[in-house]
Amino acid sequence: MLIVPSDLKDELVYDLAKHYYEYLGSEGVSVGALKQLDRNDIAKGLIAPLHPGAEMFYKEQGILE
């Protein structure tokens, strides 16, 4: 989970979500727990509200519940 201020620009949060998603799908993941995470499940079962920028990215990927 990435926590950002609600007033952070949508474009910036969109880019953060995109880069995090791409990182999770890469060979560069170095944290064991993240290697076990399916990047297509990162928007499932959320308990915190999504920032509009992240929501836009996840909807484009078709992974938002």
Can you walk through the features of this model?
The chain has 65 residues and is mainly alpha-helical. The chain contains 3 helices and no strands. The protein is globular and about 30 Å long. The two termini are 16 Å apart. The model has no long low-confidence stretch (mean pLDDT 91).
End-to-end gap: 16 Å
Q: Helices and strands: which structural class?
A: mainly alpha
Helicity range: 40-55%
**Count of helical stretches:** 3
Q: Helix-strand pattern, N to C?
A: HHH
Bulk shape:
globular
Instruction: Classify the beta-strand content into a percent band.
Output: under 5%
Q: Quick one: biggest sheet?
A: none
On the 0 to 100 scale, the average pLDDT is: 91
Number of strands: 0
Low-confidence stretches: none
Annotation keywords:
single chain, 65 residues, mainly alpha, 45% helix, globular
SSE layout and pairings?
Elements: H1 10-24, H2 32-35, H3 52-61
Summarize the entry for a quick read.
The protein has helices at residues 10-24, 32-35, 52-61. It is mostly helical and 65 residues long.
